[in-house]
Amino acid sequence: MVPNCHGKILQSNEWDDKWSSFFRKLLGSFLQIELGINGPWQEYEQAFETIATAVIPQLLGPLQVDGRVLKPSLVHGDLWEENAAINLATGDPVVFDASAFYAHNEYELGTWRRKTIKFGKPFFNYYLCNIPPSEPVEQWDDRIRLYSLKFNLAHMIGWPGAPFVREEIYEDLQYLIGKYPGKSTDLN
After folding, report:
1. How far is the C-alpha of 182 from the C-alpha of 77, rounded, in Å?
2. 3-state DSSP call for residue 170?
3. For residues 35 and 38, what is the distance between their CA atoms, to the nearest angstrom?
4. What are the helix (H) ranges across the chain?
């Protein structure tokens, strides 16, 4: 394993056969850093605990059950308009400042959901024309919302004290908990 960085944040990319387990650990590590920078908030921390124990298993667990195989995809890890450009000499796209690792292909779309990111509906539509949502399809938007939590935490780490982003995270936590209530016994 060779750790890499998301911006200035060291992130572990140690292999885990279960994507839900890998993502839970990744999200938890970013949460701990964010809390260390922006301070505790009891309701927020409790909501993240529910996300880890109930929501992640319900949203990401189904990707690898009932004969479904999640093919790992090498993702950029931080793909947004500030990390993408056009080579003026060739017209080819160029991406940079990657925090690459193997993930569920939809993970990358979490950053595009953020309110401050200009990649939006046209990019989602083009993506979906080329790569259909994973099964269960009806959970696609909720998976993207879940993935966006990590990118919003990274924003809070890089730009401490941005209260509107922390509130956005909390709203997303409440939405997901409301839609996927209850405790799961399968933490993988």
Report:
1. 30
2. helix
3. 5
4. 19-38, 42-50, 56-60, 109-112, 121-130, 140-158, 163-179
Residue 104's closest CA among 11, 22, 175? 22
Q: Which two tokens stand for residue 97?
A: 């400042």
Element (H, E) at 86: strand 84-86
What is the pairing mode between strands 84-86 and 93-95? antiparallel
- Cis peptide bond upstream of 136, omega within 30: yes
Cα distance from N-terminal residue to C-terminal residue, the chain: 20
Q: What is the Cα–Cα distance from 36 to 55, expressed in whole angstroms?
A: 24
Under a CB-based contact definition with an 8 Å cutoff, are residues 185 and 22 in contact?
no
Give dist(CA 113, CA 145) in Å, integer: 7
Place of tokens 């909390």: 170
- pLDDT higher than 80, residue 2: no
The structure tokens listed for 149 are: 């939590």
Look at the alpha carbons of 164, 170, 172, 178 in this order and tell me if their dihedral is positive or negative: negative
Residue bearing tokens 């839609």: 179
Mean pLDDT of the chain: 90
Task: Please write the tens of the pLDDT for every residue from 37-53.
Answer: 999 999 999 999 999 99
HSE at residue 79, side-chain half, CA atoms within 13 A, is: 19
